[in-house]
Amino acid sequence: MNVAPRPPCSILFRKLQWRQFCSGAARCSGHNRWSKIKHDKSKEDATKGKLRTVASQDVAAASRAGDPNPNLNTQLFHAINNAKKAGLSKASIESAIARGQGKSTSGAALEAVVIETMLPHNVGAIIECLTDNKARLLQDIRLIIGKNGGNLAPTSFLFQRKGRSVFRKSEAVGVDDVLDKAVDAGATDVEVDDEGRITVDTEPNAVAAVVQELTKEFPLVSESSFILYDPIEDTSVKLEPRQAEDIENLLQLVEEDPTVQDIYTNVAIKS
Prior knowledge:
The protein has 7 helices and 10 strands. By secondary structure, it is of the alpha+beta class. Helix content is 35%, strand content 23%.
């Protein structure tokens, strides 16, 4: 089984709520991905741009998870339709499909790059990218972050790597049904997210085994499997509303770079 490094975002935006991202209580809501934070309604143009960014990431994720031909990949077919509705151009869609296959539109291989950075207000972040020009990428990201009060610095010690598998909502199967089998297969946590889907956390090397075991034993459909950076609770940073807005605005700028795949932060939003 090929484990995709990121899941498709079936819900493009969520209202910014005052809660801990990636904590036990909020783990189901989006894995600290700031791409799901809904913009203020007054920022209509920014919202449209954000929709296109997330749609592009979803197309890439769907392509990465299967065949680049949408006629042979239902997930990609739906992602492309959503991207068209979001106003993504044909060229951008083709680029996202190629990126999902680990190539640029010219066919050149893409390199996975992980950037560690300290943002304003002592927020640690990890940015995952795919690029055919690492030097240019580092220069561009360093410039954006530096202009906004941050700098590139080690931050991986603020996070722990986890595997996560998401299973399509099932009326016939619940957490209690799969818990024992999941733990036996290597699960460290089993929950239901706010869409009714079962989510299973594991060590990074146990993702495939858990998916295989649960889909064999239960009528479950695997929706996505990926590896993420989960912030360590003791090192999370609490922000005031104005500070949170600073971070959101900066990450919006970072996400405009088409090479950016995922962003993780150690922000603990006040409840």
